Amino acid sequence: MSQAAEATAYAVRMEEVTRSYGSVTALRGVSRAFPRGGFTAVMGPSGSGKSTFLHCASGLDRPTSGSVLIGGTDIGRLSEAKRTRLRRERIGFVFQSFNLIPSMDVEQNITLPLHLSGARADPRWLAEVVGRVGLTDRLRHRPSELSGGQQQRAAVARALITRPEVVFADEPTGALDPRSARDVLGLLREAADQTGQTVVLVTHDPMAAAWADSVLFLRDGEIVAELADPTPTTVMAHWEIL
Ligand SMILES: Nc1ncnc2c1ncn2[C@@H]1O[C@H](COP(=O)(O)OP(=O)(O)OP(=O)(O)O)[C@@H](O)[C@H]1O
Ligand SMILES: [Mg+2]
């Protein structure tokens, strides 16, 4: 495929990505392309490499070997500064540990990615995103004044505020009640369906995984199974045989 066609078809492509931490190999030669506008869930036992997978696919971390292309650009060939800029402009990330800035209030945290790239918040989009994550009456609160679920929702709003081409979310519903979880998953689904954004979601929850178009199962740093058009029941059944 030409570089231009590649950039159009796939938002992200990983080729033979291996990531080792000293003697621990967290990812072993993973190859996978994420089509634009697709919603993929990633599941696997604790320690199977899911967070490492997301960190490498999003350019937060560099593979020990192999390559990652974001919109056709091989990020391994970019300088640290260019990689950071590409990530800021094109990627949204929800961290497993939220990573909110303690000294900033909710609104400042959510709009931080915009400020970092010198953009201003579109007030209507800000109100929309904040409303969807249910934090309209918490904008002046600091993260320490929020519940775990509220912090998680602020992290999701921060990832969506720049309308990134790709949203990576590491367990964004782990601390949420079922209704808030549905709202957050609905936001991600809408990002894929209505704006053609690409979503990659790590989750332990079969109900959450069922919102995706396909589910990848990781074990010991490798993709060992894949399931298309998942339902909670088929996800559970796959999980059982892993
Ligand atoms: N910075 C690091 N230094 C050393 N080892 C690491 C580091 N990050 C991850 N690992 C190891 O790599 C493996 C995969 O970790 P990873 O965080 O990707 O797992 P995970 O599937 O996200 O697990 P969980 O479901 O518990 O979040 C684990 O064995 C972990 O101990
Ligand atoms: Mg993890």
TrEMBL record:
InterPro entries: AAA+_ATPase (IPR003593), ABC_transporter-like_ATP-bd (IPR003439), ABC_transporter-like_CS (IPR017871), ABC_transpr_LolD-like (IPR015854), MacB-like_ATP-bd (IPR017911), P-loop_NTPase (IPR027417). The keyword Magnesium does not apply. One of its GO terms (cellular component) is plasma membrane. Transmembrane segments: none annotated. Signal peptide: none annotated. Keywords: ATP-binding, Nucleotide-binding, Transport. Residues 12-240 form the ABC transporter domain. CDD domains: ABC_MJ0796_LolCDE_FtsE. The keyword Transport applies. It holds the Pfam family ABC_tran. GO terms for molecular function: ATP binding; ATP hydrolysis activity; transmembrane transporter activity. This is ABC transporter ATP-binding protein. It comes from Actinomadura rudentiformis.
